[in-house]
């Protein structure tokens, strides 16, 4: 499905990613771990096309998207929930979700049930502005907006950051539900080891802009955690 090959990217003269390679298979939940500042968000932005790659390649379902604009990647079936949620504060909840339909490959006259069925509280908030919601409510809105296009790959950048525990549990349940459905793969950036261990199939650890370790859950030992993740 998704293949990142020897990707190099950065900001200005600064190189953040140094030859990163990873894969996400259909229906899989792949977790991207690492200390702060190692390039996790930079990688997500590069995969989505928000940040241009300097070297390397991003391919999706066999198509080379390395130079493609974010809109084209979204149209190919990649959804994105960025760090910080980035909801449109002046638009209503309903309008925010409608924006997600712009990336849909299917014609739709309204919000598809799949976008909101996992967040039953959202319809009662349709007339509220996005900027008036709590952090947890905004995260649910950003999730629903991404799901509106029925993506086959969903990029989640720290969806639990700054969220109350009850909403974190809801997000865990949503990811497990998506995983069980088997229609959408997920690439997840998250700091909580307990969280990723509860949902992940395969794991990559970034260190100094490169993949320092990769493996399945059983291989994610205390020794690996101490070496690459403990601050």
From TrEMBL:
**SUPFAM superfamilies the UniProt entry points to:** P-loop containing nucleoside triphosphate hydrolases (SSF52540)
* Cross-referenced Gene3D superfamilies: P-loop containing nucleotide triphosphate hydrolases (3.40.50.300)
Instruction: Give one GO molecular function term.
Output: ATP binding
Q: Which UniProt key words apply to this protein?
A: Amino-acid transport, ATP-binding, Nucleotide-binding, Transport
- Classification via SMART domains: AAA
PROSITE patterns given for it?
ABC_TRANSPORTER_2
Segments forming a coiled coil: none
Where would I find the ABC transporter domain in this sequence?
A: 2-231
Q: Which PANTHER family does the UniProt entry name for this protein?
A: HIGH-AFFINITY BRANCHED-CHAIN AMINO ACID TRANSPORT ATP-BINDING PROTEIN, HIGH-AFFINITY BRANCHED-CHAIN AMINO ACID TRANSPORT ATP-BINDING PROTEIN LIVF
The family assignment reads:
Belongs to the ABC transporter superfamily.
Its recorded name reads Urea ABC transporter ATP-binding subunit UrtE
Species assigned in the record: Paenibacillus terricola
């Amino acid at each position: 499905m998704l293949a990142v090959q020897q990707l190099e990217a950065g900001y200005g003269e600064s190189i953040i990613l140094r030859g990163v390679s990873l894969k996400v298979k259909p229906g899989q939940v792949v977790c991207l771990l690492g200390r702060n500042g190692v390039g996790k968000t930079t990688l997500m932005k590069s995969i989505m096309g928000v940040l241009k790659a300097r070297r390397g390649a991003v391919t999706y379902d066999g198509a080379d998207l390395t130079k493609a604009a974010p809109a084209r990647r979204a149209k190919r079936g990649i959804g994105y929930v960025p760090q910080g949620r980035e909801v449109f504060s002046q638009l209503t909840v309903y309008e925010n979700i409608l924006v997600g339909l712009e990336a849909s490959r299917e014609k739709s006259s309204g919000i598809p049930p799949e976008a909101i069925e996992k967040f039953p509280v959202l319809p009662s908030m349709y007339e509220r502005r996005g900027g008036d919601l709590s952090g947890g409510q905004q995260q649910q809105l950003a999730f629903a907006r991404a799901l509106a296009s029925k993506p086959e790959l969903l990029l989640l950048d720290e969806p639990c950051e700054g969220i109350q525990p009850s909403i974190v549990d809801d997000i865990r349940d949503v990811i497990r539900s998506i995983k069980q459905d088997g229609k959408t793969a997920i690439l997840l950036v998250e700091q909580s080891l307990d969280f990723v261990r509860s949902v992940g199939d395969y794991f990559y650890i970034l260190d100094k802009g490169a993949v320092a370790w990769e493996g399945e859950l059983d291989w994610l030992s205390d020794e690996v955690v101490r070496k690459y993740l403990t601050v």
